Amino acid sequence: MKAKHLLAIALTAALLMTACWILPASAGADGEVVLRVCNWEEYIDLGDWDAEEDIIDLDIDLEALDEDEKAALIDNWDDSEILDGDQRMVFGKNPMIEDFEEWYFRTTGKKVRVEYSTFGTNEDLYNMLTIGDVYDLVCPSDYMIMKLMAEDQLVPLSESFKDQEKETNYYERGLSPYIRDIFDSHQINGESWSDYAAGYMWGVTGFLYNPDKVDEADASTWNLLENRKYNRLITIKDNVRDACFAAIGAVKSEMLTSEKFRSREDYAAALEAEMNDVSPDSIEKVQGYLQKVRENVYSFETDSGKADIITGKIVASYQWSGDAVYAMNVAEGEEEDDDVEVNDENRKYLNFSVPEEGTNIYFDGWVMLKCGIGNDTEKQQAAEAFINFLSRPDNAIRNMYYIGYTSAISGGDDGRILAYLDWNYGAETEEEETGTEDGTEAETAEAEAEESEAAEAEEDAGEDAEEEEPTVEYDLSYFFLGMGQHSDDYVLTVPESQLKRQLSAQYPSEEVIERASIMIYFNEEQNEQINRMWTNVRCFNINQVPVWIWILLAALIVGGVAFWLWRRAVRNRQYE
Amino acid sequence: MKFSRKTLGIPYAVFLLLFVVAPLVVLFYYAFTNGTGEFSLKNLTDFFSDPNTLGTLFYSLLLAMTTTLVCLLIAYPVAYILATSKMKSKPVIIMIFVMPMWINFSLRITALKEILTLIEGNLAFYPFLNSVIGMTYDFLPFMILPIYNTIVKLDGSLTEAARDLGANERRAFMRVTLPLSMPGIISGISMVFLPAMTNYVVLDMLNNSTFIMGSLIGSYFSAHNWHNGSMIALVLLGIICVFTLLTDRGDEKDARTGGALL
Questions:
Q1: Contact A300 B58 (CB under 8 A)
Q2: Considering its fold, how many domains does chain B have in total?
Q3: Is A131 on the interface with B (CB under 8 A)?
């Protein structure tokens, strides 16, 4: 009996321990700060890069820099993997989080342990917080930040975080002026976003499409969604906000693309107002439109659209720019994905287009939660250091390279972000060509003719011109200097195709940015209306059931009951 | 203190309390309160006055009934033939039917999606059909096994007696074998119908854009409307309870043993 009792106790204890184990164990050992971070899935560099393929060679010429610049660069250098004496390399050897813990200990002498977890959607995160999960630092999107701000759930960023003078304030020193302007100018309850949130990644929405199957003109309007030409060959996002934004753009297409509207003085503000129009009248139109779209699209998807366009099941897909970059990489065979296998047969070059009516510019930003940080200054310091560490240009590059989205960091004086863009997208100039050219090509050229060097060089150049596509200039001054600014330093020379490919998705041109609008957080009442609209679109309405089905059902039930009664009567008679 | 065998039940009682009773209490709480935490029946009236909810219930029922019917029509002959044949390799064939259950379910549906695309060209034109095919594929073993187990245990002499007394083969089947295999059929139906009502993953993966009950509840929760969502879940629970009570009456214990093979 005793043994049984013990066994029972042991089993109960085991069960309870499993239950407790799920609950977060906070409060680290002696003096160690525990930072509970919750981020999107797959939204940070997890390290373990391929040492052969994944070395980012920024190719910054140290000789050309003056002493101060050089010193600043080398100072920041220490944890980047240096593989070659005089060239700047970025390489993700360890997970970003491990690197942070090590860096924090080295720079402050304090120990920090990051408890990292992930969420799938903003709504999931909000539900987790409502249930009572506690986090110190989370990374929701713009509208969820607005909601959390309005509900007073956030801790403001400290003064010392905003001190531009401090060497390690990489965020404040490196934030893109364009993003800074948006974070400063958007307010909720009289407080601007930048008081509470630090931008992490951003992007726009648009269509990823297969240029062999879809006309570029068709893809440059939100009306593509209901274009019967591509019946059941397009996907739309399976969430109410994205679907709503596209539908508003499509419904108001004529007005939004009119010259009169585009040339308004307050175009940006007017566009934002129109795209966030959730008046009953607008919602009704949106509902009608989405009901038509439902009959025209292949599916409402959250993740499968990328694989479906690569395998050719669909020809266009409503996508976030970061996911579009990733899908283009996979389709070209540049990157591997678990869901699709790309070989020579199905390799394709996809394009990205941003509809003319306007696009949704979105941000994911780090915010500190009251429920986690409270008044703990040690913790807040660690949280802010975490933001800064992610904002250090080489780390921003690592994250961008790893996840495909666009960092909000432009690097300020640090030239590495620009160098990365050039490394990633820049057309190869002739000097680089001869510099990087190796083995085979050079040898065959030598064997071909023993002519003078000049003639050989000329020939090489001629061949290259035949093979290579024309290049264009791509101006990103707005991102590095601010809207309306211009400097030749920030003009990239890129292959022409990049105007429609990864570069145009990762860093939209200024012309696209001009028609970008944020989507605000709607109030309770508006949200309820939008959600109702969404159920109306997605649900089968009982009123759609034709009368004859009801009659048939009634007949079946009456018939069934009658049959059963009859059978019983017959059986009873048999036994009598 | 006296210890009895009941002590051994404590772990299960704790489990029951933590993971069955507690969530139900929470579900009830949300279903019968409004946003401010006051008692309210509005969620219940919402359920029966909203054409979307009723329509979704209708659609889910239709889908589940079709799936169950198709499963039954395929499973009964298979189970009957298997059970009555004198093959030596019967266990092997049963194994073949059960084997898909050992492979991860999302993997199977992904494969099915590719096959259906090959056949149909574009899945999006036949959402209802695809959903029925997908769920039938998924739930068929649950239907075959209970029926097989019932028929295989039937006393063959009863059929022989019917034949001796002058019933032809068809009549013997209709009056003897079929009624006697009812427990297996009912058990199979409840094992297919109930998951078919709520399993929306198959629909999602095969691109059916119409909500069924599961996805409707999900959409309420992601819209932070836990109260209506809980009420829908609760009503669904009620429907399933009633269904189970009705079918359990004709159910025999040994018809269930098929579950052990899974």
A1: no
A2: 1
A3: no
Please indicate if any CB of chain B lies within 8 Å of the CB of A403: no
| Block residue for tokens 């003639």 | A455
Q: How many CA atoms lie less than 13 Å away from B40 in the CB half-sphere? A: 16
Residues A317 and A306 sit within 8 Å (Cβ to Cβ)? yes
Within an 8 Å CB–CB cutoff, is residue B59 touching chain A? Answer: yes
Confidence of residue A133 (pLDDT cuts 50, 70, 90): very high
Task: Determine whether the interchain pair A299/B209 forms a contact, defined as Cβ–Cβ distance below 8 Å.
Answer: yes
In this prediction, residues A236-246 reach a mean pLDDT of 94
Tokens of B166: 């002058």
Instruction: Report the percent of chain B where pLDDT is more than 70.
Output: 93
**Radius of gyration over alpha carbons of chain B, in Å?**
22
> Which residue from A minimizes the CA distance to B123?
A298
Q: Domain range for residue B204? A: 43-261
Q: CA A258 from chain center: how many Å?
A: 30
Q: How many contacts, defined by CB atoms under 8 Å, are there between A and B?
A: 101
Q: Which of B47, B175, B202, B209 should we substitute to test contact with A (largest number of A Cβ atoms within 10 Å)?
A: B209
Q: Encode pLDDT of A536-554 as tens digits.
A: 999 998 888 889 989 999 9
At a CB cut-off of 8 Å and minimum separation 6, what does A25 contact? none
- Which residues does residue A495 pair with via DSSP β-bridges, in sequence order? A471
Identify whether B33 is part of a domain.
Answer: no
Q: Which domains does chain A have, with CATH numbers?
A: 26-199+364-412 (3.40.190.10), 202-358+515-536 (3.40.190.10)
Is residue A298 within 8 A of residue A232, CB to CB? The reply is: yes
pLDDT tens digits for A488-523? 989 999 999 999 999 999 999 999 999 999 998 898
CA dist B28 and A314 (Å) reads: 43
- With beta carbons less than 8 A apart as the criterion, state whether B195 and B240 touch: no
DSSP state of A157: P
Nearest CB to A536; choose among B15, B18, B52? B52
Q: In B, which residues are within 8 Å of A130 by CB distance?
A: 224
Say if B128 falls within a structural domain.
yes
Instruction: Answer yes or no: is B129 within a domain.
Output: yes
Share the mean pLDDT of chain A: 84
Whether B223 sits inside 8 A of A527 (CB atoms) is yes
B10/A1 touch (CB, cutoff 8 Å), yes or no = no
CB contact under 8 A, B224 and A4: no
- Average pLDDT on B188-204 reads 88
| SS3 per-residue string spanning A370-421 | HHHHCCCHHHHHHHHHHHHHHHCHHHHHHHHHHHCCEECECCCCCCHHHHHH
Q: What is the pLDDT of residues A3-40, one digit of tens each?
A: 666 666 666 666 666 555 554 444 555 678 999 999 99
On the question of pLDDT at A83 being above 60, the answer is no
Tokens 């009982």 appear where? A542
List pLDDT tens digits, range A365-397: 999 999 999 889 999 999 999 999 999 888 899
Do A543 and B51 lie within an 8 Å CB cutoff? yes
CATH code assigned at B158: 1.10.3720.10
Q: Residue B70: name the closest of B140, B148, B142 by CA.
A: B140
Residue-level pLDDT at A128: 93
Read off the pLDDT of residues A440-494 as tens digits, 9 standing for 90 and up: 444 444 444 444 444 444 445 444 445 667 899 999 999 999 988 899 989 999 9
Mutate to test the interface with A, among B65, B131, B219 (most CBs of A within 10 A): B219
